[in-house]
Amino acid sequence: MNSAKYHSAIQFYKTRAKTVCLFVLLFFAQSVFTQNTLDANFSSLMVGADYCTNNSLNGNTSIYATQPVSTVYSSYYHKSGFNASFVFSNIANSDESNEKATQEYGLSLGYDIVFTEWLMASASYHHYFYSKNSYSLKSNYKDLYHLGMTTQVGWWLSGLDLGYFSGKANDMFVSLETGVEININNVLKKDNTLTLQPTVSLYASSINYYNEDAYKNYYFLYSYSQSNPELTIEELLSYMENPQSPEQRIVKRILTNRPYYYTKVKELPLDLVISDLFKEQSSFAISSIGFSLPVFYQWGNMLINLGFSVYKPLNQPSYTEDSWTAFSNVGLTYLLPW
Asked: Which residues form the signal peptide (predicted)?
């Protein structure tokens, strides 16, 4: 392979490797960035592994536990633009009790088209499988349909993504990202490159997927809340100390037999009216804003990626986490272009 094509493959590889943690964040969606040196006249195989300190969906994380994610993946890219990927993730603290790990598998097929040396579009379909005990935010979805448009002009990068999830819940998201690329050549050794890509992200999505999350995590309160529509979490916890009615004793028995249910209840705001958890709420709004700093070091066919990200959930239901969340990732990938 000539040096120009090899450099192009490495640049394309950085585009893909940048989103290894976003494989976790965005259901293995395609990258929002491309490179102006992209050359479509090569095929490649990419394999790698990544560790991310928390699991997230469009910048939102579990309110019950931190969920570190270990991921291995392989991707094949044909020079025509077609590509296929397989991803396996082990997500800690993501079962019903938020104490044990669950697993996720992702398969995807996609197509990239290069319009100019600074503009690229992509379309892809993703299908997901989960272990039966999975309670991660993403476990409500089985399919993702994705369209993206990315551009790079000099050092400036930007992208627009549109995705539609289907499964137990059907949701749409739109993401906008912009940032810069800084390349430092011949770091530590000749022909090795250090790349930094600080970016800003904005997500808009369907907020109603939290309805499914509430039904899934608090179903044991549904019947009691419907017969006591004004009951708050604070009142419920007070009644559990000395239950009087048959309904209260049933709930007390459930919480006693499964202590992690009691833990989930205590995570909710004390003034939350329990029946509000199960009311149908549907809106499309800005759901989070984020900042990230991915760093790559490339030598030969290998690349190390490090990343740090912070996200602020916006316009979320009162019982979800709305404070800034920080997480980081580290990964290693091998690229074989031909």
From this structure: 1-34
